[in-house]
Amino acid sequence: MDFECPLCLHHECEIYYSSTRKNLIRDYLICRLCDLVFVPKLFHLSEEEQKDRYLQHNNDPEDEQYRIFLSRLKDKLTPFLIPGQLGLDYGCGPGPTLSIMMSEDGYGTDNYDPIFRPDTCVFDRNYEFIVSTETIEHFSDVKTDFDLINQILGFSGVFAVMTSIRYANIDFGSWHYRYDPTHVSFYSPETMVYIASNWAWSIVGVYENVYIFRKG
């Protein structure tokens, strides 16, 4: 069966790993052009199933441990920003928290989530920074999402992502990150280089599982 890579749209894809766990039977394919590992759509959860899964997460703005977790990205991002700049949390989930934290530090931040905050008015604005924490691994139509982000990110704007990177030393079969049935896209450092090149962004910061891009 011929599969198209959801990021670069090429067909140079092959089976990377097959899961036979009772509650997670699915294939993972790898694109030989951009190195994305992805789950074909026939194995994806429905939107309602995804929503139920996301609601199980403890994304409480009052949870100090959750704030500490999000600070892994925030603390790396803010040196690239100027106080007062306007940003967007793309994929904020059911309990937007990073936008609150950014606002507390003097950065106005809107929220968008295709399930919980589907306000498409955000696509009519330009933002000076965009953040996505534990979000891009959920992208199904990966290129479409990155196209949208590029469209609303202003020139010289900063895009910061946090996701578990598929580094070469990771044993994919036992990797906890692939066990979440809503995780369908897995990025290696080579994938991040492809993303930067394809959208004419520069990689200005790499901090293990945090990547920071600048447009233009």
Description:
The protein is an alpha/beta fold and 216 residues long. It has a single domain (59-215), classed as Rossmann fold. Strands 5-4-6-7-10-9 form a six-stranded mixed beta sheet, sandwiched between helices. Strands 1-2-3-8 form a four-stranded antiparallel beta sheet, with no helix packed on it. The chain is globular. It has helices at residues 47-54, 64-77, 98-104, 142-152, 189-198; strands at residues 13-21, 24-31, 37-38, 86-90, 108-112, 127-133, 153-162, 185-186, 201-207, 210-215. The protein is built from five helices and ten strands, in the order βββααβαββαββαββ.
Poorly predicted parts: none
State the name of the first-level CATH class: Alpha Beta
Helical fraction: 10-25%
Radius of gyration: 17 Å
Coarse morphology: globular
Count of distinct structural domains: 1
Q: Quote the average pLDDT.
A: 95
Please list the strands of the largest sheet in the order they lie side by side: 5-4-6-7-10-9
Biggest sheet details = 6 strands, mixed
How would you classify the helix and strand content by structural class? Answer: alpha/beta
Helix and strand topology:
Elements: E1 13-21, E2 24-31, E3 37-38, H1 47-54, H2 64-77, E4 86-90, H3 98-104, E5 108-112, E6 127-133, H4 142-152, E7 153-162, E8 185-186, H5 189-198, E9 201-207, E10 210-215
Parallel strand pairs: 4-5, 4-6, 6-7
Antiparallel strand pairs: 1-2, 2-3, 3-8, 7-10, 9-10
Structural features:
216 residues; six-stranded mixed beta sheet; 23% helix; four-stranded antiparallel beta sheet; alpha/beta; globular
